[in-house]
Recover the amino acids of this structure.
């Protein structure tokens, strides 16, 4: 199973896909993505819109949460997020790396750093907390067409 490809497909037709987020890597505890900056990602003042940065970082953390759900979790929802914006970009591409800081039975805490690909300078720092929904929770068991479920990893022969 290619987790990265499954998660990329799940973003199609949703906000992350519409913005153009490209997953580079996805595994338990870490996700990397990039976003080519387009004019529609800018605010009317010609600076990168904060929502673009938050969407990139939050999407990386969310995809990482899905890839890192513990046994018995039926889904997740974001309960808190915070961003610190340090600089902007108006062209090129952004890179985001999200890492799992805490992986508990009921919560996960993720950090993400968004950088400019051209010079590697940090654009924003991001942290979010995900509340893990138990299996069978109605919020995690929505319409199966809109609910991403990763296939279980193949079992290794003994």
């Amino acid at each position: 199973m290619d987790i990265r490809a499954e998660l990329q497909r799940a973003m199609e037709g949703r906000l992350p896909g519409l913005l153009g987020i490209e997953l580079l890597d996805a595994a338990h505890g870490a996700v990397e993505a990039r976003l080519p900056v387009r004019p529609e990602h800018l605010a009317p003042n010609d600076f990168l819109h904060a929502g673009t940065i938050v969407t990139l970082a939050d999407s990386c953390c969310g995809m990482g949460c899905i890839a890192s759900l513990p046994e018995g979790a039926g889904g997740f929802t974001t309960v808190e997020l915070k961003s610190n914006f340090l600089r902007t970009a108006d062209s090129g591409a952004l890179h985001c790396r999200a890492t799992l800081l805490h992986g508990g039975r009921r919560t996960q805490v993720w950090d993400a750093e968004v950088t400019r690909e051209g010079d590697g300078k940090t654009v924003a720092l991001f942290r979010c907390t995900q509340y893990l929904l138990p299996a069978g929770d109605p919020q995690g068991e929505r319409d199966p067409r809109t609910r991403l479920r990763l296939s279980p990893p193949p079992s290794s022969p003994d």
Observations:
- The beta strands are 22-27, 30-36, 73-85, 93-103, 107-116, 122-134.
- Residues 50-67 form the longest helix (18 residues).
- The CA atoms of residues 44 and 50 lie 12 Å apart.
- The chain has three helices and six strands.
